[in-house]
Specification:
362 residues; alpha/beta
């Protein structure tokens, strides 16, 4: 097996220069860098990651803890995290906390014990134990998708966060349905306690108020961010004495559940019930009718999370940042009107139509 000394001899440079090229720890002249890379390729040299970590106290690995990895939304986030991590020479260790606070703390501890350099976490609805662990061990961490209220102050840990806008896009869905004449608009909301759930409920209420419609608490049911919960919540709404004529579902899993509940009752979309959903996904335009949706920039969320974490590793004491990325309204026909020109929908699904909003904490 080739060694770093073998690479140095073949390239005609010092072992230190080989180390700088492979670890990107000091600028090296382009022709020298290329000579080293050519020698690495010719000799089949591979880096001893364990030995390097003992010297540098870094493993060049990132721990990723996200629930429902089978969910297309989180799958796309994972793709964004992985692509950005590999681009910067980092590997991933992945764990699923199952949105359970106790299991969340366990998997985060296991990732930490694997000596990852930092973590990217989609926190549960009750992240108190998670925050306590990360704070006590000073683990560089970025929260994604869900915003957490973190302590502030000179000695407080600095957690960066990145997510999509939730309130304004939900307001837009409600306003769109109201403009079509709907006066009873239901919401299948997500798991209580999540910031995304709170913000989408806020957006729902703002949309009703903007349209001059009263808020009826019977039209807001929690589907717990899962398909089976979305099905149960939709069935509850349909059983009302005066059911809604339009529905907003607050994530893609609950949209599937809502469609299942409607099908079991022989109801059609949009003939019997207009439908708009938060989260666009690959097959949303394959349904009949095609789903009007809010598309989150999921891959960009994952990539931004990696960049925030690497910035934190480089400058541990810099101010904490919270990035909110804009969403895209994708107009199809499940809302009950003909598809609009592409100009209304904005950029293609998954692409951020505008600059992210950023908030910096001390």
């Amino acid at each position: 097996m080739a060694t770093m000394a073998d690479v140095a001899r073949s390239a005609g440079v010092s072992v230190a220069t080989v180390s700088h090229v492979l670890n990107d720890t000091r600028p090296v002249l382009p022709h020298t860098r290329q000579a080293v890379l050519d020698a690495v390729e010719e000799l089949g040299y591979t880096t001893n990651t364990l030995a390097r970590s003992l010297v540098t106290s870094r493993t060049r690995s990132i721990g990723l803890a996200v629930s429902a990895i089978s969910n297309p939304y989180f799958t796309e986030i994972l793709q964004g995290v992985e692509a950005s991590a590999l681009e910067h020479g980092y590997s991933l260790l992945i764990a699923d906390p199952h949105d359970d606070p106790g299991h969340e703390r366990k998997v985060v501890r296991l990732l930490h014990e694997r000596r990852v350099d930092g973590m990217i976490v989609a926190p549960s609805a009750e992240p108190r134990d998670l925050l306590a662990y990360l704070t006590r061990h000073r683990v560089p961490t970025v929260f994604l998708d869900r915003i957490v209220d973190v302590p502030e102050g000179e000695d407080a840990p600095r957690f960066d966060q990145v997510c999509a806008e939730s309130a304004e896009p939900t307001t837009r869905l409600v306003s769109h349905l109201a403009a079509l004449g709907h006066r009873r608009i239901g919401l299948v909301a997500g798991r209580p306690g999540l910031s995304t759930t709170r913000e989408r409920i806020t957006g729902y209420r703002h949309g009703l108020a903007a349209a001059g419609l009263p808020f009826d608490e019977r039209l807001l049911v929690h589907g717990d961010s899962e398909a089976i919960g979305g099905e149960r919540a939709t069935a509850e709404l349909l059983s009302l004495a005066v059911p809604p004529t339009a529905l907003v579902t607050a994530n893609n899993a609950m949209t599937i559940g809502a469609l299942r509940a409607l099908r079991e009752r022989g109801l059609s979309v949009p003939g019997d019930l207009a439908l708009c959903c938060f989260d666009d996904f690959a097959w949303a335009d394959l349904f009949s009718p095609r789903l009007t949706a809010v598309a989150q920039p999921s891959r960009d969320i994952g990539a931004r999370a990696v960049r925030l974490l690497l910035d934190r590793l480089t400058a541990p004491d810099r101010p904490a940042r919270t990035l909110r990325l804009p969403c895209t309204f994708v107009h199809r026909d499940s809302c009950g009107c003909a598809e609009r020109p592409a100009a209304l929908s904005g950029p293609p699904s998954g692409q951020a139509p505008a600059k992210a909003h950023e908030r910096t904490l001390p």
